[in-house]
Amino acid sequence: MATVRYERRIAAPADTVWNVVKDPASIPQWFPGIVGCDVEGNIRTIHLANGISMPEEIIASDSILRRFAYRITSPLYSSHLGTIDVIEIGERDSLCVYSTTAEPDVLALVIGGGSYGALAEIERLALTGKD
Amino acid sequence: MGRKILFITTDQQRFDTLGCNGGILSRTPVIDRLAAEGIRYTRAQPSSVVCMPSRSSMLTGQFPTTHGAWMNGVPLAVDAPSFAESLHDQGYATSLIGKAHFEPFMDIFGRFTENSLAQLGIPTVEQPWYDGRRGVHRGFDHLEMATHGAAGMLHYAKFIRDEHPEMFGAFYNVLDGELNVNAEGGGETGAPQVKYNVIPREWYHTDWVADRTIAWLNTLDADRDWFCWMSFPDPHHPWDPPQSELGRVNWRDVDLPAGYIADAAQREAVLDSKARHWRMWYDGSLVSNYEAPAKWVPATLTPDQVREVNALNAIEVELIDEAIGRVLSAIESRGWSHDVDIVFTTDHGELQGDFGLLFKGPYHVDGLLRLPLIWRPAPSAQVAPAVINEPVSLVSLAATFLAAAGLPAPEWVEAPALPTTSSEVVGGSDASTITEWDSALFGVDVHVRTVVTRQWLLTRYQAGYVHDGTEGELYDLEGDPLQRVNLYSDPGYTSIRKNLETLLEQHENRDIERSTPGVLVAPV
C-alpha cells in the first residue's frame, strides 16, 4: 500500500473551489485524461482518453467538511481511496489537498500524478469562475 | 537543399556490443561500416543512465538538472527546448519513429501525447513551444511510437492488437502483478526478463520500426530536407527476440563477459569496496530504483544466466543492425545517400553481468556509462573518418544536428556540437563529461554525480536514503578498465580526487537558466 499527496494553494474562496469538485459528474472538466463519465447513484464510471472505462464508488461528498472521497473499484486495484479536501485559509485563500492511497503501490503514484495535474485544472476553473 | 539526418538510437546498449568497438558476440557489419566511414567515439557518455532523463538531454541539449526531467516517471515539460522545433522551423520534415519516452509510459489516463496519438489516429498534435509559439509536438510532425512489447497504448501495441492479436501474449510480461519490473525467469537458464518469443521476426518491433521509417521516408518528396529519429526499443530487456533467430548465438558457446567476476568471494569483495548500495542491491536488501526488478536478488544470478542474457542481447543487436541496413538501402534507392548524416547511439548502457549484476541503476561504471556513438557525416560534407578517444557527451547531439542543418547552436544548449577531430574536442586532453542521477521513489532517494576524463572516473554520492554524503568511487580507467579498485579513499590519489571534485562543483554551479524540476507522476 502506498500513499501520495499533492496540495495546491488557490487564491479563491473555499466554497468556490469546492463547487468545482463537489459534483461527481464534473471530473472530466478537471482530471487530465478523463474524457467523460456516467454517474448513477453512488456509482461513477469514468471514461479515459485511451478508450478504457473504470468504475468508481463515491463514498462521500460532504459540503460541510468540503471533502470528496471515492474509490476505484476496477480489479486493476486491490485497494484504492481518493480524497479531495478543500480547506479555507482566508476569504479568498484556500488549500486543495488531493490524496491517493492504493495498492499496488505503483498505481498510487500513477493516480497521484494525475491528481497533480487535476489540481492545476481545479485552480483554473476556480479562478475563472466556472464553478 | 540541406543535409538530411537519420538519427538512430537503441535502448540500453553497451559500448562493447558492436564489432567496431571490439565486440565479438554480435555481427554488426552495417554499423561497423558507418564507423569506418565516419567518426567513432570511444568514450561517449549519457547525461543519465536511465531513459527519460537521457533522451530528454538528447532532445534539449541540456543536462537533467536543467531540463527538469530528472528521473524516469518525470515528464519532460511539453514546452522544453527541442532541436526538432528548430529543424521544423528550417523547413525540415521531422519524425520520431519507435521509442520516444519523454513522457511516462505508465499512463492509465492516456493524458500524455505519446500515449494518445495511436488512439487518436493522428500523426502529431499542436502544443506550446519553448519560444512561446505553438507547433507540432516537440517539433515532430510525425510520431509513431513503440516500446518493448505489445502492452500499452503505443502504435506498435495497436499494430499487434489490430493485425496480429494472437501475438499479444508472445512477449515477456515486462511488469509483474504488482506492476513492478518483473523478476520472472525464462529461457533455458531461468534468467530474469528472458523469454523465447514465438512472434515471427517480421512482426517484431525492431523490424516494425524499420518498416515504419521506410514508409515515412517514402512519403517525402525527393528534394525535401528531413530529420528522422529512428529509435529501436531493443536491446533493452526483456530479452525476448523472435525464437526463429535463436540459432544466431548459442548461449552455451558464450564466454562470460570480462566484467563478470566468477569467484563469488572476489566479486563480493569488489562490491564491498564500492558505495554501500551496491552490496545492498546484490544481497537483496535494497532495490533503490524502479528500473531493476523489485523481487530479483542479483546474488542469485548464475554464470549460465549471464551467458543466456548476453546471447539474447547479441541476437537483438544483430536484428537492429540488419534493420538499419534495410533503411539505408531505402535511402540509397531514393538517391539520398550522399546527403544524409547518420548518427548512431543509445541512451545508456546495461550491466549485463558486470559485478554479478544485470539491468541498471545508480551504478556509474562503464557498463552503464560508456556508450556506442558513431557519426557518419553526409559524404557531401567531406569530413574525414576519425576515432575520437576523448570524452564526449550525448548532450552534444542537439547542437550536432543543428550544425548539420547549417544552424548555429542556440543559447539553451549546454554542450557544443560533437567534434569531428580530436583537435576540436573542448578541453583537449583535459576534456571531461558529467553524468547525473537523482531519484526519489517510495521514500528512497539517491543522488549521484560522476565526472569522467580520459583517465579517471569519479563518482560522488550526495546524502540520501542510504548514503551519508561522504561516499564516493574513483577509478583509473587506464590501469583498471573494469573499475574493480576503488581509489576514492586512497591518500595517494587525494589531489586527483580534489581536481575531479572541482569539475563536479563547476557543473553544479554552472551558469544556466534551469527549468523547475518536474513532478514524478509515474514510476516509468
Q: Tell me the helix content of chain A.
A: 25-40%
Number of domains of chain A: 1
Kindly identify the CATH topology of chain A.
Answer: Alpha-D-Glucose-1,6-Bisphosphate, Chain A, domain 4
The total domain count of chain B is: 1
Taking Cα atoms only, what radius of gyration of chain B do you get, to the nearest Å? 21 Å
CATH homologous superfamily title of chain A: START domain
CATH superfamily of chain B: Alkaline Phosphatase, subunit A
CATH class of chain B: Alpha Beta
- State the total count of DSSP E strands of chain A: 7
Q: Which quaternary structure do these chains form?
A: heterodimer
Main sheet summary of chain A:
7 strands, antiparallel
Structure, briefly:
By secondary structure, chain A is α+β, with helices and mostly antiparallel strands.
Structural account:
- The complex is a heterodimer of chains A (131) and B (524).
- Helix content of chain A is 27%, strand content 47%.
- Chain A is α+β, with helices and mostly antiparallel strands and 131 residues long.
- Chain A has one domain: 2-Layer Sandwich (Alpha-D-Glucose-1,6-Bisphosphate, Chain A, domain 4).
- In chain A, helix 1 (14-21) packs across helix 3 (105-127).
- Chain A is globular.
- The relative contact order of chain A is 0.28.
- Chain B has 524 residues and is α/β, with parallel strands linked by helices.
- Chain B has one domain (4-431): Alkaline Phosphatase, subunit A, CATH 3.40.720.
- Chain B has helices at 29-37, 51-60, 64-67, 83-89, 113-120, 155-163, 205-217, 264-272, 276-283, 303-333, 366-369, 397-404, 494-508, and strands at 4-10, 39-45, 93-98, 126-128, 134-136, 142-145, 185-186, 191-192, 226-231, 340-346, 371-376, 386-388, 392-393, 433-441, 444-452, 456-462, 472-476.
- In chain B, the strands form 4 sheets. In chain B, strands 1, 2, 3, 6, 9, 10, 11, 12 and 13 form a 9-stranded mixed beta sheet that branches. Chain B has a 4-stranded antiparallel beta sheet with strand order 14-15-16-17, with helices on one face.
- In chain B, 59% of the residues are buried.
- The model of chain B has no long low-confidence stretch (mean pLDDT 97).
- Chains A and B meet through helix 3 of A and helix 5 of B.
